[in-house]
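dude i think i finally got it to work??
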Amino acid sequence: MITMGHQILRLRFGLPAAPDSKLPERLRRLLEDITSRVQMIEPDMAVLGLTGALP
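look at this
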């Protein structure tokens, strides 16, 4: 039996110097289309749990 570990993706966004205040929330909603396990760390960083999202 082969067990698969957790698959985690860390993203850092190159945001403009003065980003729209709603941009982090829009990014989070976009990432939730990939997986429901999204954690925004800072306005320009996110961690996604992909284990359940992989076929």
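The CA atoms of residues 15 and 41 lie 14 Å apart.
im so relieved honestly
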